[in-house]
Automatic annotation (TrEMBL):
<dbReference type="Pfam" id="PF05378">
    <property type="entry name" value="Hydant_A_N"/>
</dbReference>
<feature type="domain" description="Hydantoinase A/oxoprolinase">
    <location>
        <begin position="206"/>
        <end position="493"/>
    </location>
</feature>
<dbReference type="Pfam" id="PF19278">
    <property type="entry name" value="Hydant_A_C"/>
</dbReference>
<feature type="domain" description="Hydantoinase/oxoprolinase N-terminal">
    <location>
        <begin position="4"/>
        <end position="185"/>
    </location>
</feature>
<dbReference type="InterPro" id="IPR043129">
    <property type="entry name" value="ATPase_NBD"/>
</dbReference>
<dbReference type="Pfam" id="PF01968">
    <property type="entry name" value="Hydantoinase_A"/>
</dbReference>
<protein>
    <submittedName>
        <fullName>Hydantoinase/oxoprolinase family protein</fullName>
    </submittedName>
</protein>
<dbReference type="InterPro" id="IPR049517">
    <property type="entry name" value="ACX-like_C"/>
</dbReference>
<dbReference type="InterPro" id="IPR045079">
    <property type="entry name" value="Oxoprolinase-like"/>
</dbReference>
<dbReference type="InterPro" id="IPR008040">
    <property type="entry name" value="Hydant_A_N"/>
</dbReference>
<dbReference type="InterPro" id="IPR002821">
    <property type="entry name" value="Hydantoinase_A"/>
</dbReference>
<feature type="domain" description="Acetophenone carboxylase-like C-terminal">
    <location>
        <begin position="511"/>
        <end position="674"/>
    </location>
</feature>
């Protein structure tokens, strides 16, 4: 099976080719084309195949991680959206909930008020009302009012419409009928319903999720269509699969119907790639640390399992999102992050980035702002002739010029300013990792840090030092680990259904009926993807909480029919999980079943374990010795540093730092107080010594 994984980042588009029969692997990087990422994707695929003499018509699968949806939300560049909802509930999207994003700040940034996905003038209301607990009709849907609302939205230039009614998660009839009417009046528009996107309670979150789907829907649809068409024009018969936020991949049709599936597409692939690397090296407690040109993405892997977010803490750009997602924390910290002074004179780095165009000054494309990449160049950690394996020469003088300008403003030397840029960036990233570990009761000292992305290995060791993490894993191809992660996953879909049942009065017949119905729906979905029922693996969970709580924990349900004995074991599992998460439990309190979730996956071809490196000798790997600036024992000074070609390093030989290890897709920095060696898997293991 021949596969290509393509991950589009803010600066570079990364590609990996894998032949599962021969074990052959090839990698490639091209610059991202921000105006139309599909152009960079296709150029990368063509160049990768041409350079490795691979016939385009021989590729079986193209797996793709896309940032199209994420960037549309982050940049506020989505479709002109409209909404149709119940009379009296026009402003749910504006009001939100009683919680403020930052409880004690007097300068609140409330995204759904400051940057609304759907402007108030495009939110229409119509008579019609369903009521709990059965979803019975209290007020019939006024179909004429829906038709008038649709005509008004069409006249206002609306491109996408979200149909959002109260209690549609119990009974979707009103939403479905309204959708049909809108499609009659607005043919060609993107129309979705909240019950289709996320059939769960919590109307603000459900409505916002539907609004997000509309906001990105036309853009995702257009992008996938262009990509699919371009693949066909190249004569490729490969099946396209798109990475979803839940850690699986979906078909293009599924992505077009539910574009919100891709809101963390590329980020999910990175965490999966890091988990796969750890598995190859016998490590199952990992912090994945993926730094690209614009952002740093952090994921946690415990016992080989990637953490997922809970329903109340899932968001994108501050907007709540009621969809299954891997727990990935992203901050604006990358190679292109700009160093600047705020109005109070404080020295800051990021979150603004120079991006792919013009990029850092070092890229020679007209960049005039000092960036992290420029700081690394000035400190000697990036050399002009080593970048991208020598395919792209850095403009060292331009980096020195912009860092010197920054140093003058700060009253520092160029080296002090450059080292300050890296220290601030590393501290920001270390704090982000603490928020996902220490603040949740997880000790990072028992983990390995997987440093990946184009810039991860440049910073991994110093960030690990700040967190007392003892070792850093650098994958064989760190810059394309996200693309590799695309080749390690399966076709995967989720369904959720709200329950609201309480222990002591549990209706197991209803629970089993709902679980069975969800499994049947998923089986039908896979049938449309030409996947038979014998190929599907099901996993079922329940979102549980103590009665009266406002947050839930996901607890696995046993296979088959849920019996009285089985449900008792589920209650005990919840008590244990609650104590582990919050430090206490309430054994005598009733437990509420809030949602049921059914996940179905089907195996896809996988990236095989990479061939063990042949290895070489230190003498063959050594390129030169250069002066590199490090801070050791509080003293900033230049240190003689060996530069090695990674491909020529011997296996399992411990090499002392300081060192720079170069390869096409990344550069690894080993500080003076650390050692490193190449593992039999091909990964680089940096072992941190005691700080000087």
């Amino acid at each position: 099976m021949k596969m290509i994984g393509v991950d589009v980042g803010g600066t570079f588009t990364d590609l990996v080719y894998s032949d599962t029969e021969s074990g052959a692997i090839a990698i490639h990087k091209v610059s991202t084309t921000p105006t139309d990422p599909s152009q960079g994707v296709m150029r990368g695929i063509v160049e990768l195949c041409e350079r490795n003499d691979i016939g385009l018509d021989l590729i079986d699968y193209v797996f793709h991680g896309t940032t199209t949806a994420t960037n549309a939300v982050l940049e506020g560049r989505g479709a002109v959206c409209g909404m149709i909802t119940n009379d009296g509930f026009r402003d749910i999207l504006h009001i939100g909930r009683h919680q403020r994003p930052a409880h004690y700040s007097i300068r609140q940034d409330i995204p759904w008020q400051a940057r609304p996905l759907i402007l108030r003038r495009h939110r229409k209301t119509v008579p019609g009302r369903l009521v709990p607990p059965s979803g019975a009709e209290l007020v019939p849907l006024d179909e004429d009012a829906v038709r008038r609302a649709a005509r008004e939205l069409r006249a206002e230039g609306v491109e996408a419409v979200a149909i959002c009614f109260l209690f549609s998660f119990i009974n979707p009839d009103h939403e479905n009928r309204a959708r049909d009417i809108v499609l009659e009046e607005m043919p060609g528009a993107f129309v979705t319903t909240s019950s289709f996107v996320s059939p769960q309670f919590r109307e603000f979150e459900r409505f916002t999720t539907a609004a997000l789907a509309c906001f990105i829907g036309p853009k995702v649809d257009g992008y996938i269509a262009r990509l699919d068409r371009a693949l066909n024009e190249l004569g490729m018969s490969a099946e396209l699969r798109v990475m979803a936020s839940n850690g699986g991949v979906a078909t293009p049709k599924m992505v077009v119907e539910q574009p919100a599936l891709t809101l963390q597409s590329g980020l999910a692939a990175g965490v999966l790639g890091g988990a796969w690397i750890g598995e190859q090296d016998g490590r199952n407690r990992l912090i994945t640390f993926d730094i690209g040109g614009t952002s740093a993405d952090i994921g946690i892997v415990i016992d080989g399992n990637v953490s997922e977010t809970d329903a109340r803490s899932t968001s994108i750009a501050g907007f709540p999102l009621l969809m299954p997602m891997l727990d990935i924390h992203t901050i604006g910290a990358g190679g292109g992050s700009i160093a600047w002074q705020d109005r109070g004179g404080a020295f800051r780095v990021g979150p603004h980035s120079a991006g792919a165009e013009p990029g850092p000054a070092a890229y020679g494309r007209g960049g005039t702002e000092p960036t992290v990449t420029d700081a690394n160049v000035v400190l000697g950690r990036l050399a002009a002739q080593d970048f991208l394996g020598g395919e792209m020469e850095l403009d060292v003088e331009a980096s020195r010029r912009v860092i010197a300008d920054l140093a003058t403003r700060l009253g520092l030397s160029a080296e002090e300013a450059a080292e300050g840029v890296l220290t601030i960036l590393n501290a920001n990233m270390a704090n982000a990792i603490r928020s996902r570990t220490v603040q949740k009761g997880i000790d990072p000292r028992g983990f390995a840090l997987v440093a990946m992305g184009g810039a991860g290995p440049l910073h991994g060791a110093e960030v690990a030092r700040m967190l007392s993490i003892p070792e850093v894993l650098v994958p064989p191809h760190p810059g394309i680990t996200s693309a590799m992660g695309l080749l390690t996953t399966d076709l995967k879909y989720d369904l959720r259904r709200t329950q609201f049942q309480v222990s002591g009065a549990i209706d197991l017949d209803r629970m089993n009926s709902d679980l069975g119905e969800m499994m049947r729906q998923l089986t039908d979905q896979f049938a449309r993807d030409n996947v038979g029922p014998d190929q599907i693996i099901y996993a079922r969970t329940a979102d549980l909480r103590y009665q009266g709580q406002g947050y839930e924990l996901g607890i696995a349900l046993p296979e088959g029919i849920v019996t009285d004995d089985a449900i008792q074991s589920v209650w005990q599992a919840f008590h244990s999980a609650h104590k582990a998460e919050y430090g206490h439990d309430f054994q005598s309190s009733p437990i509420e079943v809030v949602n049921l979730r059914c996940t179905a996956s089907a195996k896809l071809p996988k990236l095989e374990a990479m061939k063990a490196p042949q290895g070489g000798t230190i003498e063959a790997a050594l390129v030169r010795t250069v002066d590199v600036v490090f801070r050791v024992g509080g003293i900033l000074a230049s240190h003689q540093t060996s530069v090695y070609r990674r491909a020529h390093l011997p296996v399992d030989q411990v090499v002392p730092g300081p060192a720079i290890v170069t390869q096409k897709d990344s550069t690894t920095i080993v500080p003076p107080d650390a050692t490193f060696r190449v593992l039999p898997s091909g990964s680089l293991l940096i072992t941190m010594g005691e700080p000087a």
